[in-house]
Amino acid sequence: MSALHGRKVPRVLSIAGSDPSGGAGIQADLKSIAAHCGYGMAVITALTAQNTQGVRGVHAPPAEFVTQQLDAVSDDIAVDAVKIGMLGTAGVADAVGAWLRRVRPPVVVIDPVMISTSGDRLLEPAAEAALRDLISLADLVTPNIPELAALTGAAEAVTWTEVVAQARQVAHEHDVLVLAKGGHLMASDTPDALVSAAGEEARVSGPRLVATSTHGTGCSLSSAMATLRVTTGSWPESLRRATTWLRAAIARGESLGVGSRGGHGPVDHLGMLWDAAGVKPYALEA
Ligand SMILES: Nc1ncnc2c1ncn2[C@@H]1O[C@H](COP(=O)(O)OP(=O)(O)O)[C@@H](O)[C@H]1O
Ligand SMILES: Cc1ncc(COP(=O)(O)OP(=O)(O)O)c(N)n1
């Protein structure tokens, strides 16, 4: 961490795809890192043409150019934590894996992005093996329920017990800590838990918010976890702080006025900070 005016600032690199509508991917990660007082950096693995309603197209850069971006950052800057999101192609996933083996930042979080909530593929099927290899290099992996099913080969979990069982299987097979997420359950609460091969290590839960502003929640949570792990040194404490923040960010997402044409809007990553700091950026009152 760098020391700035007595503060320790985590330098956090997001390796992910771009969402031009600003709610998911690199754009969500940078806002989430900033909301947790980190210095955010971004290596772009894919360009998507998407908005709050769905993905219209994906454009992948050559894998060599992803390596060039990664090296440009790590040759110059000490990376305290890395968050890996959408990888798109097998070539890009392999390039990220090769860099990770060479550089290995102290904290590595992988959000195994495969399919968006709108149902669009963000990882080509041929890249799934490369993604599995990457997971074994991570400290924490953060699959949602469909991603857990893809990783374990099981049917999608419908109960929290099934979620935890699948997360334990991933933890065992990849020797990694798993953040199991209950966002996709048909339940009145939304449990999230850190799961090792031995079982649940820490759980948080709260009532399910009646909200449409859930685009990019997985991206925002995983980059918050990467940043907070550097600051707190503890995964359970990172989970507690990240989910408390995320719930508030979901609750106030609608006030952004983004996604009001029938889509899933983004969360409000930074509004709480502005309120807490007494900053009044909006010309609401004369
Ligand atoms: N309606 C909701 N109310 C409260 N928390 C939610 C809601 N939907 C998702 N979350 C939270 O958002 C985070 C991401 O969860 P999830 O939707 O399962 O993953 P993903 O965004 O990767 O599909 C989790 O912390 C989950 O508990
Ligand atoms: C560029 C990009 N990366 C990841 C996602 C998926 O975002 P996620 O946080 O899993 O949430 P949903 O958008 O699927 O709800 C994405 N859409 N775009």
Automatic annotation (TrEMBL):
CDD domains: HMPP_kinase (cd01169). It catalyses: 4-amino-2-methyl-5-(phosphooxymethyl)pyrimidine + ATP = 4-amino-2-methyl-5-(diphosphooxymethyl)pyrimidine + ADP; 4-amino-5-hydroxymethyl-2-methylpyrimidine + ATP = 4-amino-2-methyl-5-(phosphooxymethyl)pyrimidine + ADP + H(+). Residues 19-267 form the Pyridoxamine kinase/Phosphomethylpyrimidine kinase domain. Keywords: Thiamine biosynthesis. Pathway: Cofactor biosynthesis; thiamine diphosphate biosynthesis; 4-amino-2-methyl-5-diphosphomethylpyrimidine from 5-amino-1-(5-phospho-D-ribosyl)imidazole: step 3/3. Transmembrane segments: none annotated. It comes from the Bacteria. Coiled coil: none annotated. InterPro entries: HMP/HMP-P_kinase_dom (IPR004399), PM/HMP-P_kinase-1 (IPR013749), Ribokinase-like (IPR029056). Catalyzes the phosphorylation of hydroxymethylpyrimidine phosphate (HMP-P) to HMP-PP, and of HMP to HMP-P. This is Pyridoxamine kinase/Phosphomethylpyrimidine kinase domain-containing protein. It comes from Myceligenerans crystallogenes.
